[in-house]
Write a structure and sequence with these properties.
Elements (H helix, E strand, L loop, with lengths): L11 H22 L6 E3 L7 E3 L1 E5 L2 E17 L4 E6 L6 E2 L4 E6 L1 H61 L5 H58 L2 E3 L4 E6 L6 E2 L4 E18 L11 E6 L2 E15 L2 E8 L12 E7 L4 E7 L3 H5 L3 E5 L5 E6 L1 E5 L3 E6 L6 E3 L11 E3 L1
Parallel strand pairs: 1-22
Antiparallel strand pairs: 2-21, 3-16, 4-11, 4-15, 5-7, 5-10, 6-9, 7-8, 9-11, 11-14, 12-13, 12-15, 13-14, 16-20, 17-18, 17-21, 18-22, 19-20
Helix pairs in contact: 2-3
Keywords: Coiled coil, Membrane, Transmembrane, Transmembrane helix
GO molecular function: transmembrane transporter activity
Pfam families: HH_CzcB (PF25893), RND-MFP_C (PF25967)
């Protein structure tokens, strides 16, 4: 007989519906919990540069350009002003010390010199006249004293006779006193004449001393004016190359005006321009090197010019082992300037990525080599070849070092 079978709950249809639901829920859960939702961009690998992170000595140097200049340059300034009457040497020629370069004319200076010379001649004449007058006065006084002494001698004889006769009461008292007064007057006159001579002598010596002092000052003044006139002839202060002389015949030159310069050819140096970013790290004594005629030559900073112009400052570097043979003024050459000693570091090659990221992050290629992922990093010092990696990268990893300009804000690049 037929039996009634119990109705089953898990029918084929229900199992199919349940399995489908579980599958959909699993897919949704994976999408929300495990799927990579980062922004992606497909790039062509052959259009980017991938570089390896490495470990090695980081050489702290910068590449700069130096220009060969004379070791010493002497400015040629006009000591006195005037207009140019002759130009004897052109720029670019080699000159010897003391060689005449220019001749100037200045009528005002000539007139002042003549006036000073005339005054000196007048003082010389006055001094000679004063000395002659004093000599004549001395002769006159000697003659006067001789006359007075003769009169005194005669008056004394008369006085002595009158005194004797007066005592013998032969002459009157009046005749005696008259002879006495005559003798005493002449004696007093002689004393006055001697005092007068002494005064005149002292006064004459004072006048002569004054005239001699004034004459010396005037003669020094004449010598200075003569030297001033001599300065109208411009001569080379040192031997060397007259690199420039910016005047022409007929032009007017003011006192102190720069008219050119002379380069000392006994040695050369390199004038180097450096970015102001490094001004706190550059000082006298730093070394550098450059290649010339197939050889490396060592340089050393001797002077730092702290003045910053257009974002750059300058230094003078001298040749440690002597000036290279054949080097000439005006030549330029790249120089490797050392800022510190080499030290072991993690390195990443210099590339265009830095201008887009500021060195704060890079795209690192994963182990599969099929994509690169953005990663935060920290960079330190830089030289023309490498950046120093402080954090975020390990030696052996691959990093995109070319420009990121076309990658936008995507976090993953797929090749």
């Amino acid at each position: 007989m037929d039996r009634v079978l119990p109705k089953r709950f898990w029918t084929t249809q229900r199992l199919a519906i349940f399995g489908g639901g579980v599958l959909v829920i699993s897919l949704l859960a994976y999408t929300f919990l495990f799927a990579d939702r980062r922004s992606k961009l497909n790039v062509e690998k052959d259009k980017i540069t991938v570089s390896a992170v490495s470990t090695g000595p980081f050489e702290d140097f910068i590449a700069v350009t130096g220009v060969v200049q004379p070791l010493k340059t002497i400015r040629l300034d006009a000591i006195e002003g005037g207009y140019v009457t002759q130009k004897l040497v052109e720029g670019g020629n080699t000159v010897k010390q003391g060689e005449v370069l220019l001749k100037l004319e200045n009528q005002s200076l000539k007139l002042s010199f003549l006036q000073s010379e005339t005054e000196a001649n007048r003082l010389v004449n006055d001094l000679q006249n004063t000395r002659q007058r004093i000599q004549i006065e001395r002769f006159t006084l000697r003659k006067t004293l001789a006359d007075v002494d003769a009169q005194i001698s005669q008056a004394k004889d008369t006085y002595d006779r009158q005194e004797k006769l007066y005592k013998d009461k032969v002459v009157s008292e009046e005749d005696y006193l008259k002879a006495k007064r005559a003798y005493e007057r002449l004696t007093a006159q002689r004393t006055i004449e001697i005092e007068t001579q002494k005064y005149q002598e002292e006064n004459a010596k004072f006048q002569i001393k004054q005239l001699e002092g004034t004459l010396q000052r005037t003669q020094r003044n004449v010598a200075l004016w003569q030297q001033t006139l001599d300065n109208l002839v411009v001569k080379a202060p040192v031997s060397g190359q007259l690199s420039s002389i910016d005047v022409e015949v007929g032009s007017n030159i003011n006192r102190g005006q720069n008219i050119g310069q002379i380069d000392d050819l006994n040695g050369f140096k390199m004038r180097v321009g450096i970015d102001e970013h490094y001004i706190s790290r550059v000082f006298a004594g730093l070394k550098g090197s450059f290649e010339f005629n197939g050889k490396m030559h060592e340089l050393e900073i001797k002077r730092v010019y702290p003045e910053v112009k257009s974002g750059r400052f300058e230094v003078d570097m001298t040749f440690v082992n002597g000036t290279p043979q054949g080097i000439k003024r005006g030549q330029s050459s790249p120089i490797q300037l050392e800022l510190g000693k080499a030290a072991k570091a993690t390195l990443i090659p210099v590339g265009g990525f830095f201008s887009d990221t500021g060195g704060n992050w890079v795209y690192v290629v994963d182990k599969s080599g099929k994509r690169a992922v953005k990663r935060q990093i920290t960079l330190g010092r830089k030289n023309p070849e490498f950046y120093e990696v402080l954090d975020g990268l390990q030696p052996g990893e691959q990093v995109i070092t070319s420009s990121y300009e076309n990658f936008g804000d995507n976090e993953v690049l797929e090749f």
